[in-house]
Amino acid sequence: MEYLPDEETLFEGVRKLPAGHWLRWRNGRAERDRWFVPRFAPDAGRSLKESAEAIEAALRESVAAHAIADVDVGCFLSAGVDSSLVAREAARIMEARTFTIGWGEGRFSELEAAATFARATGLPNEGRILDAEQFFASVPAVQYAMDEPLPNPSAVPLYHLCAMAAESVKVVLSGEGADELFGGYPYYQECLAFAPYMMVPAPARRALAAAARHLPEGTHGRRFLMRGAHPLPERYIRLEYNFPWAEALDLLAPELGARCAAAPTPWELAAPLFAEIEADEITAMQTADILTWMQQDILLKADKMSMASSLELRVPFLDREVFALASTLPASHRVGRRETKIALRAAAARTLPQATAAMPKQGFVTPLAQWLREDPWREQVHEVLNSERARRFFRTDRLNALLDEHQRGPRSHMKKIWSAYCFLIWHEQYFG
Fold first, then answer.
1. What is the percentage of the chain residues whose pLDDT exceeds 70?
2. Is the pTM above the cut of 0.90?
3. The pairing of beta strand 73-76 with beta strand 171-173
4. How far apart are CA 51 and CA 38, in angstroms?
5. Distance (Å, rounded) from C-alpha 303 to C-alpha 176?
6. What CA dihedral angle connects 43, 44, 50 and 52, to 10 degrees?
7. Of 46, 90, 89, which Cα lies nearest the Cα of 326?
8. Contacts of 389-392 spanning 24+ positions with Cβ under 8 A
9. Which residues face 24 on adjacent strands?
10. Euclidean distance between CA atoms 82 and 174, whole angstroms
C-alpha cells in the first residue's frame, strides 16, 4: 500500500493517534474519540463559473491566513497548478520566494517549467538539480527522519527541497491536499469508465474476469475486466498500490509469509472505511484517499521531511473553509472523462497562464526507475537486497528476479524494489 495503513507502528507498544481524533488521559485511563469526519455534500445547483469564483475567493483567504508569520515565508513551486495557485496568491500579499528541485534528466525535471512560470508572474525562484549520488546517499537520513518505512520515491527530493528552503526561510506554503479535495488523480476517471460496466450482473462480470486472467499480460482490456469484477471497496487502487497482496506474501521469507497470510487483507482493512461512506464512486474514492493515502503517505512525508530541516510546512488547501467549499462541488465539477480538477482549473485559469492551469497531473516524478538499471546504483541496491538482514525478511531470490526483470525492461518494478530497499534501510537505521 506504500504506507502503514492504520494506527499500528513497527515499534512494540507504540501506536499512532488517528487523524481527526482526540485523546484524553484521565484517572489512569486513556479515552479516545473522533471529532472530525470529512463528508461531501455536493450542491448540484451550482454552475461551474460559480464554483471557480468560490474556489478563487476561498483559496485567497486561506493563503492570506496561512502566510501570517513573524518570520520569512516561502512557497514550494512545481510545474503543476496546485503549488502555482498557492504561490500566485501568496505573491499578492508578500514577496513570495519560491523553491524548486529538479533533475539533470530533463524529461523528469520540473525546473524549467517552474522557472518559466515564476518569470511570467514575477516570482523569485530558486532551483537546484538533484543527482543520483545525492539521491541515494540521503536515503538513510530520509528513512530515519520518516520514523516509519515509507517508500514513496518523492520523499527524497522533498527532503532536499526542504533543506534548500530552510537556508532562506522558516515557513513554506505547499500545495498538498488539492488532488484529494478537488479530484486531481487520473484514476478517479476510472469510475466514469466503470459506471456502465457495473450495470452488468456481478456473476457475468466475475466470469469475464476469470476468462481475462488467461489472457497475456498487457492485453488491452484485461485489467479492466479483472478489476471490473469487484465493487469499489475491493478494486480501490490504493489497496494494492505497490504489490498485489498475493505477490507481497510470496515475496516474504516462508515463515514470515505464513504468519502474514493470516493478517487482514488490504480490502478487509478498508471495508469499514467504505461502509461508512455513502456517496457516488468518485466521491467515495476521494473520501477514502483523504482518510488514508493523504494522511498516511502524502502528509506524513511532507511533515517529516520539513521537520528534518526545522522547516514549518503549511497547507492552505487543507484549510477548513476550503474543504467546506470543496465538499459542496458536484462530482462533474471535479472529474470528467477528459479532465481532472475541473473547477479548480477553471479557477486557476482566471489568474494563471493557460499552460499552467491546464498542466496534466504527473506527481513528483523521479528518474529512479532509470537509475535502478544503471551501476553503481543497481549494484548498491542488489547488495542491500541480498544482505543477511534481507534474508531475515524476504525471499531474496524473488527480489533478485524483480531486479533482473526490471533491468532487462520494458516492465518497471521500481516501486516493488524500492519498497523492499527502503524497509531494509529503515530497519538498519533503527535496529542496527
1. 99
2. yes
3. parallel
4. 19
5. 11
6. 80
7. 46
8. 389/424, 389/427, 389/428, 390/420, 390/424, 391/253, 392/253
9. 31
10. 8
